[in-house]
Structure formats: C-alpha cells, structure tokens
Write a structure and sequence with these properties.
- This protein folds into 2 domains: 122 residues, HAD superfamily/HAD-like (Rossmann fold); 96 residues, 3-Layer(aba) Sandwich (Rossmann fold), CATH 3.40.50.1000.
- α4 runs parallel beside α5 and α6 packs across α7.
- It starts with a helix and ends in an 8-residue tail after the last strand.
- The chain is globular.
- The protein has 9 helices and 15 strands.
- 37% of the residues lie in helices and 21% in strands.
- By secondary structure, the protein is an alpha/beta fold.
- β4, α3 and β5 form a beta-alpha-beta unit.
- The chain has a 6-stranded parallel β-sheet with strand order 5-4-1-13-14-15.
Length: 263
C-alpha cells in the first residue's frame, strides 16, 4: 500500500462501500483480513455499507452468513441489488406485478415494495441469480417479454467467484431471454448510478469522503469512477492484475486483498 493511500484511509476517507463476493468471502470461505477490516473500520469510526450485486439473500441473511463466518455485522450495514430493484420497480409502477426468476431475497424485496407475483400477464419479468433457473422458466420469461412485459435484471455480472471456481451470474442468465426476444434488459445493480446513489444516501456520505472496495473492474470500479469516489481494486476475486490494462479506465489503487487495509 502506498503512503498516500494509507493517509487517505486514515484521515480523509470516512465511509466505505464494500463488495462482498470476492472481497469478503468466496462462497462460505472467509477471505484473509475480512474480520480485521471490520474491526479497523469500527475502531476508526468509519461508516460502512456492504453493497452486493447478489440478489439471492436478504440483509438479515447476509448478516447471519457473516456471523457464521465469525464477523458480527447488523443487517442495516447491507444493501443488495434485490432491494435496489424493488425500489426501482415501485418508483416506475407502484403496486405492479412481476414474473420472477430468483431466490427469496429477491421475491421478498418485491413483496415488501408492494409487488405481487404473476406468471400470466406481469408488468415485468425480473431475473436474478437462482437455483430455479431452467429451460421451463426461460421459456415462460421469453413468452411474457414477447407479450409486452418489460425485462429487468438485478445486476449485469456475467460471472461470480465461489469456493469451487467461477459460476454464471445474472448477466449470463438474462442473456438467453435477450437473445430470444431481441429486447435488452435494464440492469439495476452496479454500475448503475441508482445503486451508488442509494449507497451514499444510506451512508450519509459525500463522494469526496467515500471509497469503494471491489474485485470487479466492470461493476465495482467503473461504478466508483462514474460516481467520482476513491476506487480500490482487490485481486482476491475475479479480476487479475493482467486484466486491468484491458479497460479504458483504471482503479486509483490496487491491493492483493482487504488484509492490506487495516492500519
């Protein structure tokens, strides 16, 4: 870590937006330095929000997962693409309906936003990550989009890291519906500015005093660049050092992992 970053982290950075997959854990394996990072942020009185493009779990479930891994963080420190998607849909059409391919974290967020589930004539087809993804659900989604439902994806990630390696993520799961219908999905999660604005509001922070820590150039880092906040790429997830040069933008800082941050 450079002395300039050390001083920024200790002094002028008051709030952190932190990705989870590939930054804090891989699947059910905690990454080095994750617990120490949370302890350091608390000791330094830093505000922090775990901002994940994953739509599978609710904030309460994410809190419980971290607790099982040895880190006690209350649910209010988590914000997901499922919550952002529900907020977006409610602002577009209050009390609407959706056909959903995803896990309970997504469907519950939509219920809480006043949406109902509808597999016949929904306003939206909403796709997130989920084990229920299959040919039958994709065929239904295609028919509904062709019938006029609007297509929304919780996040554009094409892949994600797990304990066993890289797996398809929401962007890859939405692609068959886009290709079959000729309709492009609207993705709500990072790097959509909506997600970053929600995060800054929840933190009560300005962009000048905020940093984002992530492992993806195409979601975390570009989101930080476009929001004009400090960007820290960690190489513990899907992006390698060799891949950084493939992009027309760059992170302000590159670290091997979050274990480098606690001072």
């Amino acid at each position: 870590m450079t002395p300039a970053l050390r001083q920024r982290l200790d002094d002028s950075i008051a709030a952190f937006i932190i990705d989870m997959d590939g930054v804090i854990y891989h699947g059910n394996r905690l990454l080095p330095g994750a617990a120490e990072l949370v302890e350091w942020m608390r000791r330094k009185d830093k505000r922090f929000l775990f901002l994940t493009n994953s739509s599978e779990r609710s904030p309460a479930e994410l809190s419980q997962k971290l607790k099982r891994l040895g880190i006690d963080v209350p649910p209010e420190h988590f914000y997901t693409s499922a919550l952002a998607t529900a907020t977006f849909l409610a602002s577009q059409k209050a009390g609407g309906s959706a056909f959903v391919i995803g896990e309970p974290g997504l469907t519950n967020a939509l219920y809480d936003a006043g949406y109902t589930m509808n597999n016949v004539s929904p306003d939206y087809v909403v796709i997130g990550e989920g084990r229920g993804y299959g040919l039958e659900s994709i065929e239904r989604a295609v028919h509904l989009v062709m019938g006029g439902a609007r297509l929304v994806g919780t996040n554009p990630d094409l892949s994600g890291p797990t304990e066993s390696g890289i797996v398809p993520a929401c962007g890859a799961l939405v692609a068959p519906v886009e290709l079959s219908t000729g309709k492009k999905a609207f993705f709500v999660g990072k790097p959509n500015p909506l997600m970053m604005r929600h995060a800054l509001k929840r933190l009560g922070a300005t962009r000048e005093e905020t940093a984002i820590i992530g492992d993806r150039m195409d979601t975390d880092i570009i989101a930080g660049v476009e929001a004009e906040i400090e960007t820290i790429l960690v190489l513990s997830g899907v992006t390698s050092a060799a891949e950084i040069g493939q992009y027309s933008y760059a992170p302000r800082h590159v670290l091997e992992g979050v274990f480098e941050i606690p001072g």
